[in-house]
Every structure is written in structure tokens, then in C-alpha cells.
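User: I'm preparing a small set of examples for a lab meeting where we compare how different chains pack in three dimensions. I only have the primary sequence for this one, and I'd like the structure in C-alpha cell form so I can line it up with the others. Please keep the answer compact; I'll paste it straight into my notes.
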Amino acid sequence: MTTTLDPGVVLAPMAGITNRPFRRLCREAGAGVYVSEMITARAFLEGSERTDRLIAFDEDETPRSMQLYSVDPGVLARTVEIIRADDLADHIDLNFGCPVRKVTRKGGGAALPWKLDLYAELVEAAVTNAGELPVTVKMRMGIDGDHLTYVDAGEIAARAGVTWVALHARTASQYYGGHADWDAIARLKDHLAPYGTPVLGNGDIWTASDATDMQARTGCDGVVVGRGCLGRPWLFGQLADARAGRPIRPDPGVDEVARTYRRHAQLLVDAFGEHIGCREIRKHHAWYFKGFRVGSEVRQGLGRVASLAEIDALLARIEPGQQADPQVVAAPRGRTNGDRTVTLPDGWLSSRSVGLRRQELAAAEIDASGG
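Assistant: Understood. Below is the C-alpha cell output for the 371-residue chain.
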């Protein structure tokens, strides 16, 4: 059965963040497509407890969206074929946007679309073996301002028959710094218009108003939200309001934030046990309580919690009744570092063809967060 995907709102995969508990919180807040943490196709074929955990979905989760990363068309083809045959997902998203140095220095991630032949083989391998499963592509603008790839890569994906193309409107050299170039999203939308392929925009969506502004300015068919929802799963409810033309619900005060944070911790414990669950929730407290008056001892304690009882004791010490500061809510969150030289294999930029370099690319297929 063909899965119908609404491209309006998509949760971007983020390593260590977009696991089953966080996706549940986001799904409960609003409608959208909530993509799993990225896995490599090779790791999928080799199998491991960690990989099995990353590709697990809740029984009521639909559509089940899985993001794959690969540099080997044969490995990707086998992986997609198994996912389809064993009914492991309803949607496959391909990552070509990872800016991490240990990936790009081997020619993977955001560096890979520079080699147009290999990139085309990968996309075609996924689409051909997916059958009726929709396949989508997420990418960056390119390596740097002098080596842009997104127009060529978008057209190749459209010709291959992908369901949509999502563009993080930064180059790999920008990493997560500076401002996303929304005009690039508009250019890609115009370029792919003859193919009828939807284009989704990603980058600098911190509020629901940012999403509506992006769509109005670029004409994109939907938005992909990453760092903007860190500590704010209710953003997807606000995005639902904006799409429906309703008044956008206000940001919650500290009392509701604390309740959501506590539920997030409980879901993590239910999924992974108290030891791992409490370790996982530690990274989230700074995002949830950004802009609120939370004493240093409480903040430090939340960064070390080992039990739900400790969390309850610490949350009880937060001053109740505080309201969200709109300026803080609209500010960037998560990683903001950028402006760096992208490390590439020697001679990588000398040709747009991969040639005989396929073997050295194998080292690029490692676990890393997508961009």
C-alpha cells in the first residue's frame, strides 16, 4: 500500500534527540512527519542492538519514517529492499547533508553530491528498490559558497522520482552558524517546478511565524524543523495552528514546561530503563528551561540526575508561575557554531565524477548525525 505523506511539517532527524519518546511528544502536539534518528545502511545490514533501538517505532506511530545514510548504492539497495519486504517503515529519507568533519574528509555527507554520478546512483538505488514506499532526500546547499550542489542534486532527485526534496539552506562550511539562505530554497523550488517535485525548506525556523514567513517568501511546500523544537515539542502544535489559519497558541509557562520535561523523562525511562533514560534526559534541561529563572544548583542537578525521584525533587525547587519570554523563545537554540573550512579528500574538487574513489568512500559510512 502506498503511504501518502503530507509534506507540510517534518521533524528533522537529530542524533540522540529524535528517538521514540521525543517523537511521541511531538506527534501528540501536532500533525506532521516525524523522522527517526539517522542510521547507516551498512549498520542496518550488519545489525546491532543499538541499530535496532534507533529504528524502533511505537505501535501507534504513523507514518513510520526512517532516515538512511549510505555511500554504496549496492548496500543501500539491499537495505531498502529489506525495509520494504519486511514492512519496517512507511517512508525512507536519504541524508546528503551531514557536515561532520569525520564524514566529509572521506567524501561522505554534504561532500558526496559533488560527485554527481555516485549521488545519482544512490538516489536511483533507493527509489528503484523502495517499490511503493516514498523516498525523499535531505541535503545542504553544497560544500561552500564556491562549490554549490543543491540545484544539480535536486534535479537528479526529481528525475529519479523522489517524493520531495528538503533543503537545509546552509553549506557544509557554514555548519550551524550564520543565517540560512532562504532565497536558495526559492531558487530550488523554481528549478524543480517543471518536475512537480515538492521542495521543503529547513533552516532558522525557531517559531511558527518563521515557518509561515519562509513559505511566503520562498513558495516552498513545507518546512523541516530541527533545532527550533529542542526543549519545545509543543512547537508542532503551534505550527498546526499556523497552517490552519488559527491563532497560534502561546508558549507555555514554566509550570507546563516542567510537566512536559517530566513526561519526557518518564517516556525515556519507559523506553530504555531508568539508568539510560535519566542519562538521556540530562541533555534536554537547558533547552526546556531556557529563559526561565532556574537556580544554578537546580540546573547543575538536572544535568546529573540518575533517577526520576531526583528529577521530581529538583523540579519542585523551580519558582512557579513564570511566563515565557518571547525574545528568548525566538532566539536560536542548539548548535550555532559555523564558518569553517570543510575537510575533504585530496583532489576531491577536481572532478564531478567519483571515478575510482569508491573504496576510500567506505570509511565515510559511519554513525554521525545528519545535517
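A couple of notes for your slides: The chain has a mean pLDDT of 94. The two ends are 30 Å apart (CA to CA).

User: Perfect, thanks.
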